[in-house]
Design brief:
The complex is a heterodimer of chains A (about 170) and B (about 240). Chain A is built from seven helices and no strands. Chain A has about 170 residues and is mainly α. With about 240 residues, chain B is an all-alpha fold. In chain B, helix 1 crosses helix 2. The longest helix of chain B is centred in the C-terminal third of the chain and has 28 residues. Chain B is flat. The two termini of chain B are about 65 Å apart. Classes of the chains: A mainly alpha (about 170), B mainly alpha (about 240). At the A-B interface, helix 1, helix 2, helix 4, helix 5 and helix 7 of A face helix 1, helix 2, helix 3, helix 4 and helix 9 of B.
């Protein structure tokens, strides 16, 4: 039991932290692990164990937000007003701005960004966790990134010239 | 003719390497000529890389303690819950299958009833039950047994339920014994000795019993172990230990 906890604690806590925010992340993560340990015996293996645990995490986080009635729908205010950081502090300051911008996104966008971009899961895994189609995942990711760009303002990317190679 | 409006929705897939070569080439061609879309692509790539570079977050040490306390509280609640509620909770996952099976059976009975009680349309025709005797013998041969798909057949599942419950209680006992033996280091000799005596007596009772009586003995053991483990937590909490 403890091994399973140590294997998933960072991801479960990290997802909860980035979806519900720092003050409630521990409560949500706790709820997830209790559900995992109490439900483990009835886990039927329909999906990978990790997918099941992440699904519990996302569902617990989203329903926590719903109970708390704090689904944010914000405009362009806030982060774009932050002063541009000096180059040497750019990375850590950008990370802080990104963490902050995440909290301003609608919960569904936050979930897909955390799963795909932060945790690095594939669209197939995200679709299994969010219980939607892969196409829906892709379009949600596109919209979520666009919203993040709006919140952060221009100039997030490196200053490079036009593309020169195949990806 | 590609425009910014048609290219921008494809940028996410392009940057994640998910576009087929020909579509990727179209996007690259547009990016070479359009400074505005280049800026959007740079920003999105920068955002994606920054999101991937966010550091993992370590949970506070109190998380594990909180999980254990909640599990212990839930198990105590399980042990105190009336028997019918526990049985209901165990059966709950089978309810959809039972409902489906019930509906299928009800539909089959309804069809059978309708077919046997159908009024004769043609005057003078004998009733169906009477006509059966007129049918050729081969029609009346017994039909092959209808196969029931394993997914619909819950009989085996239900029969295995008591064994599963006994095994689950056994697992809970072993888990609680581990917690108790970890806590034992801090116990006085008297308490440890009393614990051993009680555990030996309870184990004896479990081994001697069978069926429901054995599960009752297992539940008594679980309650005792939980009270011993929780007692330590309560003492620690009352001393203000985090």
């Amino acid at each position: 039991m403890e091994m399973l906890y140590h294997q998933y604690r960072r991801r479960v806590f990290g997802m909860a932290h980035r979806i519900v925010g720092p003050s409630d992340a521990e409560e949500v993560a706790q709820e997830v692990f209790v559900r995992v340990f109490r439900g483990l015996a009835s886990f039927r293996g329909d999906s990978a164990l990790s997918t099941w645990i992440y699904r519990l995490t996302v569902n617990a986080a989203l329903s926590y937000l719903s109970r708390r009635g704090r689904r944010h729908e914000v405009g362009d205010e806030g982060l774009v007003d932050l002063p541009a950081p000096p180059t040497t502090e750019r990375d850590s300051a950008l990370a802080a701005r990104i963490e902050s911008a995440l909290t301003k996104l609608p919960a569904g966008y936050r979930a897909i960004l955390v799963l795909h971009d932060v945790e690095g899961l594939s669209h197939e895994e995200c679709a299994a966790i969010l219980e939607c189609r892969i196409g829906t995942c892709k379009s949600q990711l596109h919209k979520a990134r666009a919203r993040m760009r709006e919140l952060l303002g221009p100039g997030i990317g490196p200053d490079v010239e036009p593309p020169t190679s195949n990806h | 003719m590609t425009t910014c409006k048609t290219i921008q929705p494809r940028l996410t897939a392009y940057l994640d390497g998910e576009l087929a070569d020909d579509h990727g080439s179209v996007v690259r061609g547009h990016l070479r000529e359009c400074a505005a879309c280049r800026q959007v692509a740079r920003d999105e790539a920068g955002l994606r890389d920054s999101l991937r570079a966010l550091p993992p977050l370590d949970p506070p040490a109190s998380l594990w303690a909180g999980v254990q306390a909640q599990l212990a509280a839930a198990e105590v609640a399980d042990a105190r819950a009336p028997r019918w509620r526990r049985a209901f909770a165990r059966w709950l996952p089978s309810v959809p299958r039972l409902v489906t099976g019930g509906l299928v059976a009800a539909a089959a009975v309804a069809v059978l009833y309708w077919r046997t009680h159908q009024p004769d349309e043609a005057a003078g025709k004998p009733a169906i039950a009477d006509r059966v005797e007129e049918l050729p013998a081969k029609v009346l041969e017994p039909r092959a047994e209808v196969s029931v798909s394993p997914a619909d057949d819950v009989t085996a599942d239900l029969l295995a339920e008591p064994a599963r419950t006994t095994a689950a209680y056994g697992d809970a006992i072993e888990e609680l014994m581990k917690l108790a033996s970890e806590a034992r280091g801090a116990w006085s000799d008297d308490r440890a000795s009393a614990f051993d005596t009680r555990v030996a007596a309870l184990r004896g009772a479990i081994e001697r019993a069978a069926g429901h009586a054995q599960q009752r003995a297992q539940r008594a053991m679980i309650r005792y172990l939980q009270s011993e483990v929780v007692r330590d937590d309560v003492m620690l909490a009352s001393r203000g230990t985090p």
